[in-house]
Amino acid sequence: xxxxxxxxxxxxxxxxxxxxxxxxxxxxxxxxxxxxxxxxxxxxxxxxxxxxxxxxxxxxxxxxxxxxxxxxxxxxxxxxxxxxxxxxxxxxxxxxxxxxxxxxxxxxxxxxxxxxxxxxxxxxxxxxxxxxxxxxxxxxxxxxxxxxxxxxxxxxxxxxxxxxxxxxxxxxxxxxxxxxxxxxxxxxxxxxxxxxxxxxxxxxxxxxxxxxxxxxxxxxxxxxxxxxxxxxxxxxxxxxxxxxxxxxxxxxxxxxxxxxxxxxxxxxxxxxxxxxxxxxxxxxxxxxxxxxxxxxxxxxxxxxxxxxxxxxxxxxxxxxxxxxxxxxxxxxxxxxxxxxxxxxxxxxxxxxxxxxxxxxxxxxxxxxxxxxxxxxxxxxxxxxxxxxxxxxxxxxxxxxxxxxxxxxxxxxxxxxxxxxxxxxxxxxxxxxxxxxxxxxxxxxxxxxxxxxxxxxxxxxxxxxxxxxxxxxxxxxxxxxxxxxxxxxxxxxxxxxxxxxxxxxxxxxxxxxxxxxxxxxxxxxxxxxxxxxxxxxxxxxxxxxxxxxxxxxxxxxxxxxxxxxxxxxxxxxxxxxxxxxxxxxxxxxxxxxxxxxxxxxxxxxxxxxxxxxxxxxxxxxxxxxxxxxxx
Length: 630
Ligand code: ATP
Ligand code: MG
Description:
Helix 15 (about 290-300) packs antiparallel against helix 28. The chain starts with a helix and ends in a 10-residue tail after the last strand. Helix content is about 50%, strand content about 10%. The strands form 4 sheets. The chain has a 6-stranded parallel β-sheet with strand order 3-2-4-5-1-6, sandwiched between helices. By secondary structure, the protein is α/β, with parallel strands linked by helices. Magnesium ion binds near residues 37 and 38.
C-alpha cells in the first residue's frame, strides 16, 4: 500500500511509514509541529480501510475542532481508490460531538439539544442566582472566572462534594458549584462539560453497555493529544481497555489549553497507562523552511517544562522571518494589508495568508482595515465586533445619545453603568411620554429612592448633550472620567473573559477614535464595522479563498503560506496575566504563552512576519520578551 501511495506521489519517511502501518496495540506519536502527525493519522486510516479492510464504523477519529475533523475526512477521501461511502461511515469529530451522539442514543430525552446551555450568559445566570443566595455582590464578583473554575473542576472529574478549595475565593466558587449543579438538574438543563461527564457516568454505571462500545470502537485515533483533559482521557482509557488499539498523536510544546484542564502529562505519561506502547518520534519538519524551523526551535528551547526534541527542516526558504516595527495598531494593520495586496498582485491567493493574534480584541484594527478593503477574508470563530463588546457598547451609547437623545437601544445600554436596573427602561419610556421629553431627559425624572443618585442623573444630561460637539477622543474621555465609566469598570472588573479587561477596551476605543474628527463620523464608522461583522459571519463559510483572521489558539493544526503575528509585545504575548503570575513565582503560565508563540510561528509554510508595534493601546510597549532569543 505504501508503495502504491508512493506511485501516486505520496511519500513517507521511515518513521512516518512505521506509524502508518503499526495499527495494532497502543502507539504514541510524539513529534514537533509540521512533522506530519495529522497526515500520518489520515494515511493510517486510509491504510486500515484500504489495505486491512477494517470496518470504517469501528474506527474512531478524534480531533480538536469540527473544522479539523471535516478537513481530515476530506484528506482521507483523497487517497487513491478511496470510496466516499467508507469515509462517511468513519466515526469522526471532536470528543464532544462523538460522545454527545452516544448519550443521545441512550438517553434521548435527557440530552435533547434544547436543554443545552450553549451560551455563557445562560450559565452565568444560574450562577448568579446561586450567588444571590449566599449574598455575593453581583457587581463585584467575577462570575466569568467562577464559571471557568467550575469547568476546570468538571473536566478534571472533581465533583462538587470533592472540591478542596485552596483559597477563600475558591471556597465561594465551590459553594456556587454545588448550587449550579443542583439548579441545573432541577431545571433539567445541561452544559457542554456535562456531555463528557454524562458519558463517563453512563459507562461507569453500565459495564455491559461499555463493553458494547469497547467492541464497537476497535481503533481509537486521537490528534492533538497534548490538549486532552482528565475526563477525555478516562473515556479513552475505558473504551480501549480491551483491545488497546489507541493511537495518540501530539506535541507537548503545543499544549495551550491548560485553562480548560488540558494537561500534556497525559501525553508524556501515556506509556505508564497503556502497556506495551510503541513510541515513534518524528523529527523532520515538512511544513516550513529551515529559517522558520530554527526560529521555532530556539524559541521553545527556553521552556524548562518540556520533552526535549529538535526539529529538522527539509528545505531552505527565500528569506528569514521578518520582524517589523509599526508605530501602533493602526500602522500595523496598514503595513500588513499593503504587504498582502502587493503579494496578491504578484500572483498569490488570499487563502495563502493568515493574520494571527493573541486575543480577539487585538484584531480590531486589522479587521477594520480589511472590512474597508476589497480583499476577501474570513473569521475562524465567532468574534463579536469590537464595537459590540459590552464595555465598548456602553461607552459608545453615551456618544450615540449625544447625537440622538431618543436612541432607545443606547439608553438601555447605559443603564448598567449608571447602576440602574433594566426595568428602569420602562419608567423612562413612560416618563418621556408623560413629560413630553426625550428618553435622555427622562432620566431626570427617575425616582431611585436615593437623592444622591437622582442629583447625579440630573447633572449628567447636559454633559451627554455636549459630547457631539467634541472630537471623539475627548468625548470618550468625558464618558470615562465625568460620566462615571471608569468607576463602573473598576466595580465590574473583567467582563466576559479574564483575558480581556474593560479598561483595555477603553484604551483600544481611544486608539480607534483618533482617526476621526467628529463623533458623528466615528459612530457611523462603528455602525459600518458592526454591519460588516455580521455580514462576514454570514458569508465566512462560503468563501474558500480568503485571508484568515484567527486567534493563535484556533490556528492550531493549520498551515498557511504567509503568517503575520500581530502585537508581539509584552502584555499581549506573553499576556499580562502570565507576567503577573511569573512575578508571583509561577512560571507555568509564561511557558504556556511561549508555547502559544511557538504554535503561531510554526503555522508558516513559507514566510513569517512578526509585528512588534512601538505602541499598544495608546501606550509605549516593549517587544515580547520571547523575541530576545530569536
Ligand atoms: P501540527 O503539529 O502543526 O499539527 P503536524 O505534525 O500535524 O503539524 P501535518 O499538518 O500533518 O503536520 O503536516 C505538515 C505538512 O507537511 C503538511 O503540508 C503535510 O502534507 C506535509 N508533509 C508531512 N509529511 C510529509 C512527507 N513525508 N513528504 C512531504 N510532505 C509531508
Ligand atoms: Mg496536526
